[in-house]
Amino acid sequence: MTGMVWAIFRATLLQTLRDRGALAMGFGLPVIFFLIFAEIFSSAAGDEVRLDVAIVDEVKSAESLRLLAALTADPAVRTVPGVTDRQQAREMVRLGTADVGLVVRADGESLATASGLAAPPLLLLVDPARGMTATVLAGQLERAYFAALPDLAVGRVAELVGTEFTTFTPQQEQEITAGLARLRSDASGGGGDGGGGWSFADLVESMPVAGRNASTNHVAYYAGAIAFMLLLFVAVQSAQGILDDRDRGTLDRIATGPAGIGVIVTGKFVFLALQGLVQTALVFVIAWLVYDVDLPGSFGPWLLVAATSSAAAAAIGLMLVVDCRTRVRAQFVPTIAILIMSALGGSMVPRFFMPDWAQKLGWLTPNTWALEGYSAVFWRGEPLAAVLPYCGVLAAFAVVSLGLTYWFARGLLRE
Amino acid sequence: METPPVLEVRGARRRYGEREALAGVDLEAHPGEIVVLLGPNGAGKTTLVRAICGQSRLDGGSVRVLGQDPARDRGVRHAIGLVPQDIALYETLPVATNLEVFGRLAGLSGATLRTAVADALTGFSLADRARDPVRDLSGGMQRRVNIAVGALHRPRLLLLDEPTVGIDPVARQSVHQVLRGLAQRGMALLLTTHDLAEAEQLADRVVVMAEGRVRASGAVPDLINRLFGGRQEINLLLARPPDESTRTVLEGAGLIPTVQPEFWVGAVTDDPEPLAELRARLKGAAVPVAELRVVAPGLHGVFLRVTGRVPVTREAA
Predict the structure, then answer these.
(1) Is the CB of B82 less than 8 angstroms away from the CB of A413?
(2) Among residues A57, A285, B190, B255, which one has the fewest Cβ atoms lying within 10 Å of its Cβ?
């Protein structure tokens, strides 16, 4: 019995060792796969979020310069270069060039004397779909404020004590104690009585750069992210039929006639692309009906992004399968490829959570272009012309992948 | 034959690394002719068929279908039909749908397609099962659909790769009937098989290949006559592989070795003397004879003599 088990073990081992492709897939890919996912998810779940911040200092006071110097010294904050004014910063956030904008505003109170009665001195420009970025930046700002401007912080407290409680007389100790007790009571009661209290939040105001509802935008993001990943998986699954055709001799039969292998690839591609478009439509119709994503209002641009991303997914799915040539490989390699593309491309975790290298690599994946296309449509509400660049790149993905599929498909015919 | 050939292969050569799959093959098929390609595995039959389909390039020589090169002139592929060995159909789709799909891929459309499908359903006795998925049909019926699809667009040349493999004798006869019907309509049929009985029944001409070459070609009676000249076929089976002296004796007696060392073949006249003489000679030389048979010569003997190999039996195939 042991000998028989050994015989099977040995045969399997030898077969594996002789198949270089299987070796690479079996031992190389899991390592690469792990490294990529570990990097992305540890960044997303950890404290290493890095924000690209469009910073505008309209005041340029001693305080603002010290605050911004402390903020930008923080490795979690990267300054987007070339920002000249508030409008440009706002546009950068809207277009996704910057994760969030920060304005030290000239039309607000000064950092040194802000009382909370007029406009706060710091304005955050936030994309509602990435509301998390404002929270992260506010935290970094608070840290920078207390690190860079401790005199202001203490002065504010002293001023607060002096104006709200009493002057420093012999009765100070008693009155301050009573005042602090009242502050504590106010804070725990969920807010003051209008007269007193100070917190860092008084210095900051958040302003959305897009007018749409944040939760709706989130649904639109995930509709796009899930739809595109799903498209890739379904395309690969359906494309495997071409390998069955090859094994049955159907491919030989068709290729012998006037049709040729090109007709087979084109026919499969058209089917997969249309199937993908219908699947995408289903996802977005549900998002519209259940989550109020504005599909009718953005139908034209949406259709263009959906059509080009479906075509790209179909061609990529076909290419991955045809390149594998065998069903066993075609069930493994494309799955890994899709998971990596989807992770890097933002289908699993929003890209601004990822390390810088992963964000850059993401631009090589169709997922990123599809998601950016959908973002342009639903987050930023951009017109048809603005989504054309994304659709152009997706179309290029489709054309190149389809071209490679034609090339690889010639190898499917039995030589 | 008077009519110009549908298929004309001249000096076809194809090499895979060190192995010469085709070493200068000549072949013709005329309208209405059934040509059966025989040969052991690795003889070059598949390579030749792929070259005729235009799917494999040649290193030398030429393939012409109706005077054109199917590898370069895609237009001439309308004149070729292929019936692969496997059931190359969409098995979950009905018979009629398969015919329509493949008919369209063969370049048919509109009324021509509808007529061709209707004719195929009738001609191949499939009308009753037209709406049934292919996978629900018997093996023999699936074979008929497989052939019907290849012949649907009325190609001038139909290539069939072992069209009856794996089906029972009754179903095989029905497939043979179908193939003869196609030939009677003027189609040239080139089919490969390992089944010599099938080849004898069907072939107007057999072409025996071995090691990339055509070793014999002609009508079965002509080949038998050419190789045996009215003599009987001798099959000699030795109890053990022959040593050098035994080999000398056997060759001296006019016997021919095969790739199986214990198995030798030869021919003798119908007279009793030469056979008695052979027996005496073998006995005198102490040749370890396990079996000595004298049989009426057939394609089996032709195959053995020209390839040196025992043909694959129907069961083994």
Answers:
(1) no
(2) A285
Residue B17: Cβ-neighbour burial (10 angstroms; 0-12, 13-18, 19+): exposed
Put simply, whether B138 touches A (Cβ < 8 Å) is no
pLDDT exceeds 80 at position B45: yes
Report H helices in B155-298: 169-184, 196-202, 220-228, 244-252, 272-284
Residues of chain B with CATH 3.30.70.980: 231-296
pTM value > 0.80: no
**What are B81-95's pLDDT values in tens digits?**
999 988 999 998 999
pLDDT, position A110: 78
Tell me if chain B has a CB within 8 Å of the CB of A249.
yes
Q: Tell me, yes or no, if B75 comes closer than 8 A to chain A by beta carbon.
A: yes
Q: Does A247 touch chain B (CB under 8 A)?
A: yes
Q: Which CATH number fits domain B231-296: 3.20.20.220, 2.40.40.20, 3.30.70.980, 3.30.565.10?
A: 3.30.70.980
- Cα dihedral A401, A404, A406, A411, rounded to 10, equals -140
Of A250, A256, A415, the CB nearest to B80: A256
- Is B50 within 8 Å of chain A by CB? yes
Cβ pair B88:A247 closer than 8 A: no
Nearest-Cα distance to chain B for A19, in Å, is 21
Of the candidate ranges A24-28, A252-256, A359-363, B247-251, the one whose mean pLDDT is the lowest? A24-28
pLDDT band at A167 (very low <50, low <70, confident <90, very high): low
Q: Is the ipTM of this complex over 0.85?
A: no
Q: Is A258's CB within 8 Å of B88's CB?
A: no
Taking contacts as CB-CB distances below 8 angstroms, the residues of chain A near B56 are: 415
Sign of CA dihedral B225, B227, B230, B233: negative
Query: Rounded distance, CA B146 to CA B148, Å?
Result: 6
Task: Give the pLDDT score at A168.
Answer: 63
Tokens 């099977």 belong to A8
pLDDT of residue B102: 92
Q: Do B74 and A250 touch (CB under 8 A)?
A: no
Domain A51-208 CATH class label: alpha beta
Q: Using CB atoms, which residue from A252, A253, A257 is nearest to B107?
A: A257
CA atoms within 13 A on the CB side of B27: 38
From the CA of A412, how many Å to the nearest CA of chain B? 11
Query: Does the beta carbon of B86 lie under 8 angstroms from any beta carbon of chain A?
Result: yes
The helix/strand count (H/E) of chain B reads as 10, 13
Q: What is the pLDDT of residue A188?
A: 39
Would you state the pLDDT for residue A197? 46
Contacts of A254 in chain B (CB under 8 A): 102, 105
pLDDT in tens, A187-240: 334 443 434 445 677 777 777 776 555 556 677 777 888 889 888 998 998 888
pLDDT band at A367 (very low <50, low <70, confident <90, very high): very high
Q: Which own/partner contact pairs does B257-261 have at CB distance under 8 Å and 24+ positions apart?
A: B257/B308, B258/B304, B258/B308, B258/B309, B258/B310, B259/B308, B259/B309, B260/B309, B260/B310
Provide the residue ranges of all domains of chain A, joining segments of one domain with +: 51-208, 214-412
**Residue with more model confidence, B246 or A159:** B246
Q: Do A253 and B50 touch (CB under 8 A)?
A: no
Query: Who among A259, A414, A415 is closest to B105 (CB)?
Result: A259
Parallel/antiparallel/unpaired status of strands B263-268 and B232-238: antiparallel
Among B14, B47, B49, B55, the strongest candidate for a mutation testing the A interface, having the largest count of A CBs within 10 A, is B55
* Class of the domain covering B7-219: alpha beta
